[in-house]
Amino acid sequence: MWVEVLVIGIKLAAVLAALLTTVPIMVWVERRASALMQDRLGPNRVGPFGLFEPVVDAVKLITKEDLIPSNVSRFLYLLAPAMALTVALSTFIAVPFGDGSDLELFGHPVRGFIVAPDLNIGILYIFAISSLAVYATVLAGWSSNNKYSMLGGIRASAQTISYELAMTISVVGVLMASGSLHLHQVVESQAGTWLGVLPRWHVCTQILGALTFVVAAFAETNRVPFDLPEAEAELVSGYMTEYSSMKYAAFFMGEYVHMTVSSALIVTMFFGGWTLPWIDLPFSGWLGGLLSIAIFVAKVAFFLFFFVWVRWTLPRFRFDQLMALGWKVMVPLAVLNFLWVGIAMAAGIL
Amino acid sequence: MVPIVFVIAAVVAVVFAIITVAHSSPVINVLSLVVVFFAMAAIFALLGMDFLAAVQIIVYSGAILVLFLFVIMLLNIRSVERLGSGRRVQALLGTVVAVGVGAVPLIAISLLTPATGAVYPGALETGTVVPIGRALLTTHLFAFEFITLLLVAAIVGAVYLARREPR
Hints:
- The structure holds 2 protein chains of 2 kinds.
- By secondary structure, chain A is mainly α.
- In chain A, about 65% of the residues lie in helices and about 0% in strands.
- In chain A, a hairpin with a 3-residue loop joins strand 3 (about 195) and strand 4 (about 200).
- In chain A, helix 1 packs across helix 2 (about 55-65).
- The longest helix of chain A has about 35 residues, at about 1-35.
- Chain B folds into 2 domains: about 1-80, Four Helix Bundle (Hemerythrin (Met), subunit A); about 130-165.
- Chain B contains 7 helices and no strands.
- Chain B has helices at about 1-20, 25-45, 50-75, 90-110, 125, 130-135, 140-160.
- At the A-B interface, helix 4, helix 5 and helix 6 of A face helix 2 and helix 3 of B.
């Protein structure tokens, strides 16, 4: 009993540490990559290649004066940033980040590198929790009692509902093809090849679903080109306008953690998790387990960079364009993917 | 373990249900309703109905209540006026009748029906997604298809109501 709790505790601590470490690293990557793309130098003063810049930033944010404006709804105003971070962090427990199904720790089976191996509804749990992320944004917008914040909150709620639909429908295809809601089995169903040549990753077998999911993931994380809720050119800083110090930092960290979770989901569901194309690696023993984690982390790192890459390449949508894209392009594409998976499974080619 | 979690979830559900109807700020009402749905999801999960618990949160908390908040914010309702202009006796009588009408059938049903196992057999090992899907597409196929028809009718109705007047 206690060993079981200890094993889960260790996994939880590792996941939490990894997620929170990603935030400063991604801030650095974001600033350096944007500088590279715009032919600037970027932060390079503190430490080698400016690597300690995020540390200094964190110190700055912690020691900054923590203002609470006098006209806000105090309870909700304080609840919103806490919620943003909590929701983003708690989705990761259903994501498997490595194989490790045959390992033992202190004489107790590890049961895969996933914090909650017994959660049968895996992917549904993730959707349930991450669908609450919008409350943080909406509440921040409403409780700030500021018209820019309010507009940001309204935009966030409309945007999330629109894109969540496409995202959910695109995932149905994956669940049909792998026959399980448990993400560990979703990854295992993607091993091997499809039609003899292509890897059996869902990005090959259902490209439309992958496309819809990635676009919806961008919209759900409020990143450019979908960052309408905070659009600094028109709304000052949207729902975050009235926040300062660590409360602002909580939203910021929430966004980056959300990005990491989205990347992990993209990798798990469409890019084969820790499997490699054409190479059948035996992930047995601790060495194999660590190798599977390394492959998974490398893939997630690529998608994190992809998020940054897109942000500094594409301009922001107009709000009506965003809505038209969501309802008139993404939802039909997701339904098309759903039909394709059904037909392909009935015909026996999937 | 299970009774403790149930009691916590039940108390939270009742307390926040009261806040949902009693508080004057519509935003607080909606948020309390979110907490109520969470507590109900916890009770579903305790009964082994993990699928129902997740769907409860995804559909109600994640979509419908966000829409509620959207409308409240769009109309910018800061507070609602209380109903009933100080008629205390009527309010008291109304409460008693409402509680009676709600509680009596519940108690009657729980006393009259034999205590069957509420937990679906094998739910904790395999989950309930497969049996629910099977039941929807075999035993309850007619009801299932009929609900889709109802939803289509609702969508058509909404589009009709929301369309612009022809010039």
